[in-house]
Structure formats: C-alpha cells, structure tokens
Amino acid sequence: EQKENKLLSYLTPEDPRDDSDILLEIRAGAGGDESSLFATEMMKMYSTMAEKIGLKVKIISASVNGIGGYKEVVAEIRGNSAYSWYKYESGVHRVQRVPATEKQGRIHTSTVSVAIMPLIEENNDFKLDPAEVETILSTSSGKGGQSVNTTYSAVKMVHKPTGIEAQSQDERNQLQNKVKAMAVLTSRVYDHFEQIRMDKERQERQEQVGNNDRSEKIRTYNFPQDRLTDHRYSQNWNQLPTILAGGLLDVVEEIKKLEPKRI
To answer: How far apart are CA 69 and CA 47, in angstroms?
Structure first.
C-alpha cells in the first residue's frame, strides 16, 4: 500500500494554486433558517481548523438573518498554503438533523454551499514582454490628415498576442509618445486579462457551487447517525460534534491521501 500511495503521489499533478491564500464563501441554501444556522457552524469549523494550522481568518462580509445565522459569509484565509487545506471543501454540503426550531422532532434536510477561490492580489507590477509588442512609427497628422511635422514622432503599439493597440502623437517627441503609448497599452492589456480572469473565476465558482439544491452534494452531515459521509470518496467518519469543533483537520488529512486514488 505504501508503494501504491507513493506511485499515486507521483502521478497526481501538483496544483500550482496550493500555495495561495484563499477566499472562502459560504452560502445558506435549501432549508431556510436551519441552513443559515449550519452555515454559521461551518464558518466556526473552518475558523477552528485555520487556527490549528496557524492560518489567519478575516471575515470580509456577512449577511445575517433574524435568528443569527449566516445567509452568506465571505472570508479571507491567509498563510501556510491555505488553498491546499481547503480546496476539498468546494461544493454542496448537506445536513440532516432535528433543528432547534423543530417542535415535532422531525429530521430536516438542509444544504449549504461552499466555494474556495485562490486569493488573487491586485498586481501593480504588471509589465508587457517587449518581444510581444510591435512599435510602428509615423509622422504626426493633424485633424485634416495633413502632416504636423516631418519627423517620425507618432507612435502606435500593438500587443501581438491579443491584437490590442494604443497610440500617441500628442507629445513633443518620439520618446515621450513611446512612453505614453506603452502606458496606455499596458493598462489595456492588463484590463483585458483581468476581465478574462474574473470571467473564469465566476465560471469556476458557478461550477463549484452548482445550483445549491439537495442533489449536488459532496458531503452529508447526518446527526441522528453521528456520521459524516464524503460522497466523492465513499468514506465515512463518526463523532460529528468533534469534527465541527476542529476535528475536520483529521478528515482533510485523510482526504489528501484518498484524493490521488480518484485519478
């Protein structure tokens, strides 16, 4: 088994996002108030796990309902390869138990969705590769198209991979126009890639969260049977109160070993 695990670890590609800090999003789903109460418990569970690993948690925004449960909570978790510890949490979590508000003692089924995203910092050092920029020089032209001067001071720059362009002819000389055109081009290309990144994140998040109904579950927390089931690995754990109080770390460590076998 040891040899098998070693082979699987070689076959499993490294995730370049593992070293990233993360954005954790928890949203109450089907189940109303009970779902929001469980969302609150999950936030505490993730915070306790972070504390055990030595990570820093900061809640960025939260929406609370009338009974003190989270309808939605968004938090940053930073440090010690946070993504590698939380990446298995993305998806719909189902809870089965008798809610505190249930007077008839009936078991209710509720869902909470979790999305884990690498935290992308704003990059102020974005620079273009000069090899990917084509510079075209021309004489400056006035409004009617007539030549303003006979020197090649007007500058047009093209980012070849994207086709994005920028030009400047208003400055006094070619060097100043080059600086201005490069600044405009850099801003446009950066914005282009940021839009792609944000669109991809939105799509990934939608894939992670699904439609938050009861069918796309990754885990079930069954309180009457004191059992946590991870449906991706067909694996069960007992002692739910312990897991919610910080024992999730043991579950995640076991999942890290099970994950390569899903290849």
So the answer is: 16
**CATH classification code of 2-122+209-262:** 3.30.70.1660
Beta bridge partners of 133: 159
Q: In what order do the strands lie in the sheet with 164-168?
A: 133-138, 154-159, 164-168
3-class DSSP assignment, residue 244: helix
Tell me whether residue 80 is exposed, middle or buried, using C-beta atoms within 10 angstroms of its C-beta: 0 to 12, 13 to 18, 19 or more.
middle
Rounded to the nearest 5 degrees, what angle is found at the Cα of 182, between the Cα atoms of 177 and 187? 130
Instruction: Report which DSSP code applies to 36.
Output: H
SS3 call for 207? helix
Token output for 36: 């929001």
Query: Tokens for 215?
Result: 């069918």
Domain boundaries, given as residue ranges, for the chain = 2-122+209-262, 130-197
This model's pTM is above 0.70? no
pLDDT tens, residue by residue, 103-137: 788 898 999 999 888 776 544 567 889 999 999 98
Domain 130-197's class?
Answer: alpha beta
